[in-house]
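S.,

Sequence below, as promised.
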Amino acid sequence: MVPRSNRGGAINLSKDFDILKNTKTAQTIAYFIAFVALGLAVASLGPTLPALAEQTHASVGAISYLFTVRSFGFLLGSLFGGRLFDRLRGHHVMAVMIFAMSATMALMPVVPSLAILLVVMFALGTAEGAVGVGGNALLVWVHQSRVAPFMNALHFFYGVGGFISPLIIARTFSLHNTTAAPYLVLALLILPAAALLLRLPSPQNQQVVGESATAGRIHYKLVALIALLLCLYIGAEVSYGSWIYSYVLKMNLGDEQTGAYLTSIFWGSLTAGRLLGVPIAARLRPRTILLADLMGCFVSIGIALLWSRSLVAITVASVAIGLSMASIYPTALTFAERRMKITGQVTGFLIVGGSSGGMIVPLLIGQMFEPIGPRVMMVTILFDLIVALMIYLFLVMDSSPYRRPESEQKRHTA
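The prediction came back faster than expected:
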């Protein structure tokens, strides 16, 4: 749009700057709302897993394949979604995927067989993957080098969705003893995000505009390392958030409502941690935040393993691990942004890494949950985090060859 001129024919630069700033604010708010919708969808599976198993007459081991197909769909959605955001209007792509999320969630409670449910879950995961790529990539394109606190805020709102999703499910279950009501409510709550995105202009990736192919080349080794770190983190987060409900039941720590509330407590602490992470990200280096987060995760899992029969201890562990995990994902993305150019394709690669963890680790827990016992959940997450710490240490020691040129570093910190 061409800016209007004042009476003297000069352009009103201050007004035009305000319009630009307001557009950025509106875009940022839209991404926040989209990630609330994403959190609502992602956190819905854990509390409804037993009901879906009963609905499809499947065992715990068989129903755990829902995690696998969803994460595989998330993987493909991330991979191909990244290319779509580089080529098409990002807001249109995100809106279509949010509509797809709503439609597939509405189908979940009416599917009679596990085979069909797996197909629906795959479609849901694909849409979620594209939305995840879009929110992260578009936010970087809007805020560039100042993205760190906004990235933490974005994932804070994802945690908001994850926090309220189990509460909505528990409440609707108490009113209507069926899986249809919570899924329909969640499907409707997701839709406003799509409507808002369609009303706003899509940002462009200014990092690659006018640059040569060599300047924008991908450092595949660095991408692979950060993707592996995200893989391990997402594996731990999804496993805890999805299996803590069944863990509470199998360990006789409480009933279904207790399991749902403990799931919500985990997501709530994750949400609070990401809110706290907004000012922290503006003051501390990403590597410092990542190390503190991983240490907090180890302490939390230690509490859960040492006092596994205590509901109080598991509650404390759920709060602590949620706070500790909160900023790992956005901080890892900020860590990547400071060392390479973030395109939709690179973001897709990174999120593919994360979705791989969400596909593999919960499935492993599901296969061992009944034969070995529910404690295998905590042991598996502990081993996952140990490997994540090893990758982090390797990244810290090996990241210097990939740093941006000095001129770009000065521009980044300006």
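The chain is about 80% helix and 0% strand.

Coffee later?
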